[in-house]
Design brief:
globular, 14% strand, 6 strands
């Protein structure tokens, strides 16, 4: 049953991506593309096999969301997990964490032990908070927000670059429907800033 849900979700996401982000590449990627120093977690392998972002940029309010391809995911850990010059581990980064996406100075982290997605701001000590229950939830929310931004175009904000209420309401409505919780949608949009 979970496999069916994943496939249905992947089909839905692909439709959004094709319409809103036609230049971005999403293709199946084999776990053999992984270059990391530990086994690729099963949920991450499934994510790349089913949806497969290939250095994809999803438009957002402000910085876009970035999802690296699987073959470069280990190199993407540089600056988070290890020093890019010396390859020495960086203090403060938990061995459980795998950086999976970013939005400018904010990073989205896959927890290898629980499979939830954490969100943390870069700079200072890492203090990540759980924001998504799974990878498919994360990328669906990115797709919804990106779809709104792309559809609105220059009409997204007012003269002071504040998101117009109708687009905020659309984000709350669509995310609340997907999460089946307006409270979770509110908390998530507060965390992602400027959408609340």
């Amino acid at each position: 049953m979970a496999r069916r849900r994943g496939s249905y979700l992947t089909i839905r996401l692909r439709k959004i991506f094709i319409r809103a982000f036609p230049s971005q590449i999403f293709r199946q990627q084999a776990s053999s593309d992984w270059q990391g120093e530990f086994p690729l977690p099963h949920p991450v392998a499934e994510f790349y096999a089913e949806l497969g972002p290939s250095d994809a940029w999803i438009q957002a309010y402000g910085n876009p969301y970035f999802l690296p391809c699987l073959s470069r995911l280990w190199n993407y850990q540089a600056g988070y997990r290890y020093n890019p010059d010396t390859h020495e581990p960086l203090s403060g980064w938990d061995d459980d964490w795998l950086a999976i996406a970013d939005q400018g100075y904010a990073v989205f982290i896959f927890s290898r032990s629980s499979a939830v997605i954490l969100h943390a701001y870069h700079g200072g000590p890492w203090r990540p908070e759980v924001v998504f229950r799974e990878l498919s939830e994360m990328v669906t929310i990115f797709a919804i927000l990106g779809d709104i931004v792309e559809s609105a175009g220059q009409m997204l904000t007012d003269d002071t670059s504040i998101i117009l209420p109708r687009y905020r309401e659309e984000a709350h409505r669509r995310i609340g429907k997907h999460l089946q919780s307006t409270a979770r949608a509110d908390a998530l949009l507060r965390r992602l800033e400027d959408w609340d």
